[in-house]
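Collaborator request log, item 7. Partner lab (contact: R.S.) asked for a structural prediction of F-box domain-containing protein to inform their binding assays.
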Amino acid sequence: MMHSLEGLPFDILFYIASSLQLEDVVHLGRTCAQLKTFLEENTLQRSVVERSPHAREAQLARAGKITYKEALHAIYDRNQALFTAHPFSARILGQGNTFLFRQGVICLLAGDTVQITDVRAKSRAVRLELTSIVRPILESAFAIFGNFKCSLLHYSNNILAIHVESEARPNIGHIFAISAEKRRVHYSRVVTAFQITASSKLFVRHTSRYLYYGTHSGIGADGHHKWEVSGVSLDLQYPLPKGGRPLLFEDFHGTDIGSTIAFEIYDDQFYAVSNQGTFQVEESDWTSFYHCIRFPLNNPVTVAMQKNERVYRRQHAQGPIHDSWTDLSLQVSEQTNEVLILESRREWAKASSRQSRTFYSSKFDVNPVRSSRESSLAFDDAKVIPLPENDIYTNVLDSSNKPNYMATPPQYSWNRHPEFSTADGPSPRSFILAKTKFRAYNYSATTFLDLVEDAQCCNDPCQPPCLRLRIGSRRPTSLHTPTPQDIKGKERAVHSDAPVFADHVSYTHPPIKMWPPPASTCPCAKRLHDILNPRLPLGAGCARSVTGVLDGSTFVYMVKPGRGYGAGDDGGVGSVVVIDFSRRGDQPRGTMASVRCASKTANDGDDGREVACDGGEFDELRWTWKVGLYCDCKKGMCR
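Returned to partner:
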């Protein structure tokens, strides 16, 4: 006798639901009223949410600031918004020269004034006049007079780090850590200020207790420039060891932050990763590795620094890399709190003429492993240096070579996310590098986001190409995926180059989506285009310079006029656009697919393109999704 799900005992239903993905639990609750009531049980919701214990929503639920039901739906809403390319809001925040965005806070610098705005809160922005804050300290503590220039470095835990350069002494700079808390007078906002003697490739990472800064100005044993990292304490209760010297990162190559190296702070540890093995060309080489460094913030000494120069990256035989497309970052898993290396690479697979972009993820590992440089000292010991078997180049090696080789470790499906799947056909639409203004990957949502210039969107010869979001995602579908040996006939040829994974988990790749729809779709689509494509100053032409940050579920970017030959962009003014994929507390919940207006367009290539306008007070610079207004969009009555 067949039993329906709602007829099963509570314990069995609880066990089944506890084994499902968060999205499947929400979808199951929409099948009938009985299951909806069952799935709203607090113990089950807590069990589902705690599978992502390090998500922001789970932390708020544990702190009692929101319920587990609210946390579950908040995680679902933001993941679905990214997955389906349906943001909850878009707006133009303001204009300025440059900006920072981190921890949900935007720091917008306009002249010598910084406006600090929390995109998740309704509180007013904090405005800091940097001149009145910095000048008294420069004159009294450092005897620096005259004009100076301020630039933003980093924001974290209500502290803003800036770099101050004096026009009178351009070879000497200063770093100021400034409190961004409300209700503080200017003279008490400076947490610390200190002088630095070099500013080449200057970066800052900090918490509420420690600030670390680095420059590419150290000199290594080989006579080449190296990264040098120093730290200062921001809290008297957490001092650093006295007499400490800057940490010199030997055998840590790469100079482009975000492309060849990345620095971050997680859980009171400083993390650094590089995808460059050496600055020299090694004639005989097989394997590329990540170089990882980690040390505790409260003990920045050489003996406490952990290193690993042999974290597997790729085999050179996989094909050449298009370096201009390479992006490197460090992210944290919401499920395990592990630090992961995220790298996007465009490669010519097996040296063919076909390029493909893939997003790779690897676990950050600093377990001590004998490095290739150390192994080269014992070249005669075949057990120390692993070499590929049956490779003719191994016979020509001598003591001058420093080869790198590691057999490919087991690969898992979560390690790589291809931009296109086999379901996308032989020639899916893509954009060249010059038209791709921003690229990012969100590991928690398994989604990549590009900001592209789409000349086919509105096709207006009087306007520059439309800036649009291009979003691709994937979701696990089953516990088994067919291997090339399991596939028969013509389909086997298509999958012949597909990697074989140890876990055999398959994924579904929906079509890549573009947002917003063309401006001719409805009035609110036209309004969205005006928000995402801020007008440039008269005489600026059509060239645009775009910088952006994707932090969790919020994407912020600045649009400036393109730079002319020989002109700098320091004084240029741009507009900041904020696109939020998370639901604010004052936005009602509803099924997005059922409440947004469907606007299918023939030239986008994806079905169900939807948009909706807000029904509150009209603001042409702000668009917010609201429930129940899809009919107005269909009738052309939206705004």
